[in-house]
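Try this one yourself first.
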């Protein structure tokens, strides 16, 4: 069980001010090796995945006692529990008067060597995704599909940005996620014998003609620029989604869902 907690009633409290800094500045998250997660579901998922919760803010006016007791029961003695007023909580929270719990935690950085892949892995690879909301939506798709892992190449947004965690509804914690360079990722895929299918508007092959029953990775680029030349030249096959309207592209999370679930269909919706 965690140690006894203290009461905070002022937004000028140093702990509160530092937590606000972590929410707002990627540089602070990187320097301190800390990030902020809001919501009992998200915090519970982080705990289940073994993330270290450094601080837990809770507002007794908003946190249901049964949920509070369950959450407290999962914490370790090293977690600092901070009771806050509704005003302080709402200063920290994105969702006002909701949930009643906010955590400060240590991030986890996985490498390719940390992945335990199945014999026929299915992966999602994302290159230079810029928007936290898109990244969060992509992680939800990956979680729903039960993918082996997500690889983020040359990230343009912080995986532990509060907006990413929020839009992912905690899927940041449910998936093995590796960050690496494109060249590192291409080399690793080749070494593992994993075929890469990269989505591109210039592709001649349609996505549903590809064979996803083999060990493979689906590669998606940014909405603004698509994939880099390194992927366009280095992927095993380029694929595209047929476009029948006036616009030649879709939101990257929608595109990923289409291709990922075609892969699952070919696998009989199982691994």
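Now uncover the answer:
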């Amino acid at each position: 069980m965690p140690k006894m907690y203290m009461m905070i009633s002022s937004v000028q409290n140093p702990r509160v001010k530092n937590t606000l800094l972590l929410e707002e500045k990627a540089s602070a998250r990187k320097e301190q090796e800390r990030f902020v997660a809001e919501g009992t579901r998200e915090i519970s998922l982080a705990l289940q995945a073994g993330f270290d919760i450094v601080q837990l803010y809770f507002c007794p006016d908003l946190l249901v006692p049964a949920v509070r007791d369950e959450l407290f029961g999962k914490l370790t003695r090293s977690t600092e529990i901070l009771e806050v007023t509704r005003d302080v909580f709402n200063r920290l929270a994105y969702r006002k008067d909701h949930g009643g719990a906010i955590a400060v935690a240590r991030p986890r950085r996985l490498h390719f060597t940390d992945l335990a892949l199945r014999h026929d892995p299915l992966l999602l690879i994302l290159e230079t995704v810029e928007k936290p909301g898109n990244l969060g939506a992509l992680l939800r798709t990956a979680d729903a599909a039960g993918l082996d892992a997500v690889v983020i190449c040359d990230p343009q947004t912080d995986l532990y940005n509060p907006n990413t965690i929020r839009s992912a509804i905690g899927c940041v914690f449910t998936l093995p996620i590796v960050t690496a360079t494109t060249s590192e990722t291409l080399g690793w895929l080749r070494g593992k014998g994993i075929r890469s299918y990269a989505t591109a508007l210039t592709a001649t092959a349609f996505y549903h003609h590809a064979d996803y029953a083999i060990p493979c990775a689906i590669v998606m680029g940014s909405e603004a620029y698509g994939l880099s030349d390194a992927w366009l030249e280095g992927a095993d096959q380029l694929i595209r989604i047929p476009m029948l309207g006036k616009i030649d592209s879709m939101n990257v999370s929608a595109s990923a869902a289409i291709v990922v679930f075609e892969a699952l269909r070919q696998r009989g919706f199982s691994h």
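Discussion: The radius of gyration is 20 Å. The CA atoms of residues 47 and 242 lie 41 Å apart.
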